[in-house]
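ARCHIVE CARD
CATEGORY: sequence design from structure
SOURCE FIELD: tokenized fold
FIELD CONTENT:
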């Protein structure tokens, strides 16, 4: 089974998720920068963070399926689970934004739930990788290209630390961990890209 339909469907879902998130942004009631910051500032920042995360997953998903040669039912379901986790981003982002706007930094739960959503997506992506390894067998090119996958193993640990920090210390501390993971993945991870170039050559 080829990957073309899986990739096309995933691209469409991710585009819809980004569209839903931007529609959640509140338009300021007054045409001033002060109104933009007071009424939409937090929303823009949380939208930017979630947008970056969606972009990271789209980028890595794209590179992954340049290497994947075989897809089976387990891979399809694992991919759907990843899309499920990412489709919750508009909800958890909007809830976190509303809570910060209305209650300041006094409410821990929305930030914790946002962190759980991030962790869910990371675990779903890992399960997708495992499903691909299983579908391709011992000669999986993806397994070879990923190597030790330090970033992939470090990210869930940082998410858990962020969730614990948001729950028991301060919500802003949790967000610092979530931003840190995004920064780690913004630094280009060229393993898959280099693998494709080398094997095409």
């Amino acid at each position: 089974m080829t990957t073309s339909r899986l990739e096309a469907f995933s691209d469409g879902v991710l585009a819809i998720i980004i569209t839903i998130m931007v529609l959640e942004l509140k338009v300021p009631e007054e045409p001033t920068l002060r109104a933009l910051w007071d009424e939409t500032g937090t929303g823009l920042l949380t939208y930017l963070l979630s947008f970056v995360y969606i972009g990271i997953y789209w980028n890595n998903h794209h590179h992954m399926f340049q290497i994947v040669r075989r897809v089976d039912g387990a891979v399809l379901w694992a991919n759907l689970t990843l899309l499920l986790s990412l489709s919750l981003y508009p909800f958890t982002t909007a809830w976190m934004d509303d809570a910060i706007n209305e209650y300041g930094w006094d409410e821990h739960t929305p930030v914790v739930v946002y962190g759980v959503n991030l962790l869910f997506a990371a675990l779903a992506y890992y399960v997708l990788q495992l499903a691909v390894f299983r579908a391709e067998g011992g000669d999986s090119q993806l397994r070879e290209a990923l190597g030790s996958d330090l970033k992939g193993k470090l990210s869930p640990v940082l998410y858990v630390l962020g969730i614990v920090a948001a729950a028991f210390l301060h919500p802003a501390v949790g967000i610092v961990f979530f931003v840190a993971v995004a920064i780690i993945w913004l630094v280009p991870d060229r393993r898959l890209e280099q693998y494709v170039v080398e094997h095409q050559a």
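CARD ANNOTATION: The CA atoms of residues 28 and 37 lie 9 Å apart. The longest helix spans residues 33-67.
SHELF: design records, drawer C
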